[in-house]
Write a structure and sequence with these properties.
2 copies of one chain form a homodimer.
Chain A lengths: L2 H11 L3 E4 L17 H13 L5 E3 L2 H5 L2 H18 L4 E8 L3 H14 L4 E4 L5 H4 L9 E7 L5 H4 L3 E2 L2 E2 H9 L8 E5 L7 H7 L5 E3 L9 H8 L6 E5 L1 H4 L7 H21 L1
Parallel strand pairs in A: 1-2, 1-10, 2-3, 3-4, 4-5, 5-8, 8-9, 9-10
Antiparallel strand pairs in A: 6-7
Helix pairs in contact in A: 2-4, 2-12
Amino acid sequence: MTAQQLFNQIQKKQSFLCIGLDVDLNKIPQHLLQEEDPIFSFNKAIIDATHHLAVAYKPNTAFYEAYGLKGWQALEKTIAYINKNHPEIFTIADAKRGDIGNTSRMYAKAFLEDLEFDSVTVAPYMGKDSVEPFLEFENKFAIMLALTSNVGAFDFQVKKVEDMELYKQVLETSKTWQHADRLMYVVGATKAEYLTEIRKLVPDSFLLVPGVGAQGGSLQEVCKYGMNSKVGLLINSSRGVIYASNNEDFAEKAQQEAQKLQAEMAEILSK
Amino acid sequence: MTAQQLFNQIQKKQSFLCIGLDVDLNKIPQHLLQEEDPIFSFNKAIIDATHHLAVAYKPNTAFYEAYGLKGWQALEKTIAYINKNHPEIFTIADAKRGDIGNTSRMYAKAFLEDLEFDSVTVAPYMGKDSVEPFLEFENKFAIMLALTSNVGAFDFQVKKVEDMELYKQVLETSKTWQHADRLMYVVGATKAEYLTEIRKLVPDSFLLVPGVGAQGGSLQEVCKYGMNSKVGLLINSSRGVIYASNNEDFAEKAQQEAQKLQAEMAEILSK
């Protein structure tokens, strides 16, 4: 998918919502545990109920690897289901990978080629040659951690590096990498006040913004400081949507929560 | 496994060799492709041939995820095989994970609890709450990226952060985290000259050192600057050992390469 196609979807659906598919078997409705593949059954129900309200889905790989083979299989089925039934959806493998070049290449192959995700999240610590292998795929994206939503973000990311905070160095340096137009960035909603500065460095890039809802970030604030002329934002909500209920009405309740977010987004877009 | 037990193994085997099990189906002997599980067959042969010469094995998860379900299954079989037949071996899941707290906890469960690795490599960018979940397991370790062996290490890791290079900030800060005694660190062999400074900050920690061999690092240099009274080093070789030959004699040739490294280590230890 191209960034323009993603923007077109945002306009069409009046939504820039990304739904995080972070399936924890302890949190899903217990009646699903009787199913052959409870993780996939849960995802399928959530996707069926929310696909018209969201432009992206983001399974975090940790939640699948935690269930070993069965988890990996559920991830494969989930991405295949989305790609087959909703090819207009932008898909994100939230994997936060990064390794030496020949190893990053294996991860890129796994997520972008074999599983056919549109994008994968990557960590910047190992620098250029750890990220560039993810940028070799046409119409695919690497979404790099810049300023994350968690408390630990203050440990290193906001520290001054040669008179510029580390996350700014990461943004600035990454613009020099090959195929930098295939980069998006993770910026936590809990750091909305930083978005003005971030937009000075990467005015046109899409930002994947986790942390609205459960982590306390504000959609209004994020849009105020982070939106550009082509929206340029994907707002992620995981727990707030998918665990809205853990009863048999879970998909319906997830839809209601997604609907609320979409309505709020439509209102912002109308201004 | 405790750090003392690891040291005991190093003394017993006169080796601090870690062998990286980075299986690429394009590089293994082609007759193995007839087997039911070529990846596991390759690993088993390498392990059988080298377990008396190495104290650690390190599968890099990228190489397994690249083969999807079959890859994940081969990883499960490999770690189970090592744990059953060679429980004295220190095992490292080279996964370079790191995410917000509840997500890192899922990764920690996957690698340290379910797969029963002794350790997992982690990335520091997201800070304290992204790493601490990996430190909650008794007699298990998180091995954090400090100064990596690749060119990209110069992008951020050696940049001055508040008058101290980022990798030093990472080392210094991590010492304040809960259960910091369960941390080890990745320091590339290609950065041997930095080891004097690193040892000032983490004198007692084990360092996992990739980059000897294919990447050009020197074992002698690493030992000269990085060894402490309990050795404190695990020297990794992946391609140099496991791809010594891609004919039917591959295990024998891998053994010979491991033997050379072990002999060099024994000589260093005898001094």
